[in-house]
Design a protein that fits this description.
By secondary structure, the protein is α/β, with parallel strands linked by helices. It has one domain: Rossmann fold, CATH 3.40.50.300. The protein is 43% helix and 16% strand. The strands form 2 sheets. Strands 3-4-2-5-1-6-7 form a 7-stranded mixed sheet, with helices on both faces. A two-stranded antiparallel ribbon has the order 8-9.
Length: 286
Amino acid sequence: MSSSRIISFISASGGVGKTTLSLALAAWLVKILKVNPYDILLVDMDPTAGLSLAVMDNVSYDRVVEGRMTLEAMYEDSIKHRKNILVDDYLSPARIGDIPLRILSPGENFVDVIDDAWKSGKPGSIFKRLFEKAGVYSKFKYVILDSAPFFDLRYTVLSIFLSTSYAVVLRPAIIDCKRTLRMIDKLEQYYADEMGGIKEFYSRFVGIINLAPSNPSEMEYRLLRNLGYRGKPSEGEAKTLRRNEMIESLAALLKELEGRITILKHFITRSVQILRLDLGGRERGG
């Protein structure tokens, strides 16, 4: 994968803010780290095209589909028709406020692509090879993938195979924690060995608590404390959620994407408007 940093936003539940955080990270890289926007690629791994429709209108997206500027077309040309491909031929312009970016959209029949890849028995390897052949990893310094929720595990599995880090997004609610742990358990059971073993598997996770209420209830506040958001939880509180290395990662709410550069620390927001997100003042040390 060369020196590219590839992070995928995944979740057990829908509506937790993966798309917003994907855009926030791209904006943060440009505005705060001063990364060239053309060194960043957005990849929409959701068949409903949520990320694509967040950065373009319906008419523009229809043109993208008609022009075969999609991940679906890239897969068909390379895997089915054995053509030499370049990722540039499948990218569309995108914009976050005044920031110009590029995006690889899924396509209207991306579900069929996933079905076809899954029949091979090695879908992760197929997509990784597809991205390598297209020059995704050699061309871009940062690749940000927005995946579909874990309702259909195939999109999550492909996203983690393509990535060097996985941002697990959840709300501060008991049910979200339970769903997230079940998701991690399943991913570990079936894919940890293929990702380099248990230790390597967990080392790539980033825990992000999102959509925290501005006036949390007593239960929500205790949960936030358990997850490390405010203060240090008591020994009894910590035991209720300290289940494995994943919960330690979630509790930290702080991992590094590259070197010692902090990407998201206590990233809590209720806003769905990217330009209103607090992207400034992030620390540069771990």
